[in-house]
Amino acid sequence: MGDTHIHIPVMLDRTVELLSPALSLPGAVLVDATLGMAGHAEAFLDRFDQLTLVGFDRDQDALDIAARRLARFGERVHLVHTVYDEFETALSELGILEVSGILFDLGVSSLQLDRVERGFSYSKDAPLDMRMDASSELTAEKILAEYSEGELRRIFWEYGDERLAPRFAQKIVERRMTRPFRSSVELVEVIAAATPAAVQRKGHPAKRVFQALRIEVNQELAVLERAIPAAISSLAIGGRIVVLSYQSLEDRLVKRAFAVASTSSAPAGLPVELPEHRPELTLLVRGAELASVEEKARNPRSIPVRLRAAERLRRAA
Ligand SMILES: C[S@@+](CC[C@H](N)C(=O)[O-])C[C@H]1O[C@@H](n2cnc3c(N)ncnc32)[C@H](O)[C@@H]1O
Fold first, then answer.
1. What's the number of CA atoms in the CB half-sphere (13 Å) around residue 243?
2. What atom in ligand 1 is closest to the CA of residue 220?
3. Distance from the CA of 26 to the center of ligand 1, in angstroms?
4. How far apart are CA 41 and CA 71, in angstroms?
5. Distance from Cα 297 to the centre of ligand 1, integer Å
6. pTM score > 0.85 for this model?
7. Which residue, judged by its Cα, is nearest atom 24 of ligand 1?
8. Given the CA of residue 40, which atom of ligand 1 is nearest to it?
9. Pocket of ligand 1 contains residue 15 by CB under 6 Å
10. In angstroms, what is the span from residue 46 Cα to ligand 1's centroid?
């Protein structure tokens, strides 16, 4: 597949608008923690001609495409193959102490979804892989072969919000006793057969199970939970962070991390708030912002997006 592959950046104008005040100064550094095919990154580099961009991705294929797309910006671009919870280490290896802006555009890219052999899609037959980083060890196939029925039930329930989690876990364990799962179609068949006709489903019956497996394979929530506080502490005063989440579990983690950092830590009843109790962040949008109706119609990837943004007010004590 060539570089012509399309991934339309989500809420691009709004992201640029929110990060702009932090990026206009000379020496500004933007971290794109989920570089993907660099759609957002390219727009920022074009717009701010003094900007240095650090791009992280755990997927080497995505980085290779991004490197070609961003080659014309020369030394203004640093690409790092890493999981984004290694935020501080990756920056310190580049000699960068603090940054002006940070973008997280979470989840999988169109490239990953459309590369059939990566096994992210329930609508195409493929090996049960689902690794964003092809060099990591845990795959969906391994989970389906080795996790106990209780563990399978938990991940389908917690990460897929799947009401039929106990039933699906039981059927998977029954089936693997005779034959291990090798391909996505085999898993889809078991799930479809285990879904009672009377149960009304929104979307594909295997959608939630596939989401849950992907989150577990890539440890997406644990990594995000570590990464957001690390990212906040790398922000310079006046620096800004924007996070685009595509499912409620991710958005809840981001909301919580922003709430902690934007709340005064002054003990109740203290007559005056001391400087060290003042919040570190101020929220830039009320709640979570959604894509416009026009964008949702133009780019279906933007339908579930939740955008949150904040600015750093002060350093932690
Ligand atoms: C939605 S895409 C980003 C698309 C990008 N904004 C664009 O406009 O082309 C998300 C990217 O983040 C990467 N990613 C997801 N989780 C990651 C993590 N924990 N660490 C590093 N990269 C991650 C994925 O491999 C994927 O390439």
1. 29
2. 19
3. 27
4. 12
5. 23
6. yes
7. 108
8. 8
9. no
10. 20
Residue range 68-88: mean pLDDT, rounded: 96
Contact 11, 39 (CB under 8 A): no
pLDDT at residue 5, rounded to an integer? 53
Atom of ligand 1 nearest to the CA of 84: 20
The protein residue with its alpha carbon nearest to ligand 1, atom 2, reads: 109
Query: Per residue in 120-132, pLDDT tens?
Result: 888 888 999 999 9
CA of 57 to the centre of ligand 1 (A): 6
What is the token pair recorded at 268? 């109740």
Cβ of 302 below 6 Å from ligand 1: no
Q: Is 219 exposed, middle or buried (0-12, 13-18, 19+ CB in 10 A)?
A: middle
Q: Which of 5, 35, 301 to mutate to test the pocket of ligand 1 (most atoms within 8 A of CB)?
A: 35
Per-residue exposure over 77-105, b if at least 16 CB sit within 10 Å of its own CB, e if not: bbbbebbbbbbeebbeeeebeebbbbbbb
Is the distance from CB of 296 to CB of 268 less than 8 angstroms?
no
Tokens 């279906």: give the residue: 300
Residue 217, pLDDT above cutoff 60: yes
pLDDT tens string 268-313: 777 777 777 789 999 999 999 999 999 999 999 999 999 999 999 9
Radius of gyration of the chain (CA): 21
Give mean pLDDT, residues 165-174: 97
State both tokens at 153: 């039930």
pLDDT at residue 200 greater than cutoff 70: no
What is the 3-class SS of 232-283, one letter each residue?
Answer: HHHEEEEEEEEEEECCHHHHHHHHHHHHHHCCCCCCCCCCCCCHHHCCCEEE
Pairwise CA distance, residues 270 & 280, whole Å: 19
